[in-house]
Amino acid sequence: MTENMKRNWTATDITSQKGRSIVITGTGGIGYEIALEMTRAGAEVIMAGRNIEKGKEAISKIKEMNLAGNIHFEKLDLADLSSIKAFGERMKAQRRSLDILVNNAAVMTPPQRLVTKDGFELQMGTNYFGHFALTAHLLHLLQKGNKPRVVTLSSVAHLSGAINFDDLQSVHNYKPMVTYSQSKLACLMFALELQRRSDAAGWGISSMGAHPGISRTELIPNGAGKNSPAGIARRLLGPIMFQPAAHGAWPSLYAATAKEAVGGIYYGPSRMNEMRGYPKIAKIAPQAKDVEAALKLWEESEKLTNVKFN
After folding, report:
1. Is 278 helix (H, G, I), strand (E, B) or coil?
2. Could you tell me the residue ranges of all domains in the chain?
């Protein structure tokens, strides 16, 4: 069980994943590191992202290090529900099952409010609604998987998050970090609610949350911008405060692969207030455990994304 977590667990502790299949959203940062390690471990890896060139570049790099690796890229734009549906339909046409889904890709703190193709605020739309819809479209493949797992990435930012049901898309009041925190709280609430529903319906899916601490990825430069206060801090304090992306991937990799990992648990780094270190059980904010709010958010999400989990 979880209490017997190995201390100082790293990617070198991943057991053989031969015969297992995994979809990972995002082609850089944490997503790239997860794809690299899962390819090394022998899994069939599907890296999904919206930028075809970046995707091909990431696949090429991983294949250089793993000549026999079974990895390929699929186009998926989480800011476009039609792209998510098309991806799901391709997966169902190509395969009979899926063992692991890692909901990783994210947008962080664009200075101005932006919207997805479907009119959602970009951070909520990409980080949360996109992954909510994606999981629904892949649900039947996951149900047919071998001990299937869904790992959804949250953030330490969820601790200060609140779900504003009166302004879920930040139309009336857009504050970049407040909205980001809301999106990551929603992701964790989704991970916990998915486990409750899996248990109730007998889906056999283990749903976990994970977060990378503070890691050296392109999330801040791509979102807030490299010359924003956060971008400048990332450059100046990067080597001190920000752990390597490879280490930031450990909690997600643990959740996806460790025999001891348990559904309904949230994993993150162990040191410096969960900013860096080896994987451990992470702190869940009280608002993330609010079952009534999770139910309301789930129902609202099904309406907005036009998907059903059944």
Report:
1. strand
2. 15-242+253-305
Contact criterion met (CB below 8 Å) for 48 and 293: no
Angle between helices 250-257 and 29-40 (to 10 degrees): 40
The three-class DSSP label of residue 133 is helix
Cα torsion angle, 253, 257, 259, 262, sign: positive
Determine the residue type at 181: S
Q: Which positions are annotated as active-site residues? A: 180
Quick one: fold of 15-242+253-305? Rossmann fold (3.40.50)
| pTM of the full structure | 0.92
pLDDT along the chain (310 residues), means of 10: 75 98 97 98 98 96 94 98 98 98 97 98 98 98 98 98 98 97 98 98 98 71 51 50 87 97 96 85 98 98 96
| 118 Cβ neighbours under 8 A, 6+ residues apart | 80, 81, 125
Whole-angstrom distance, CA of residue 258 vs CA of residue 5: 9
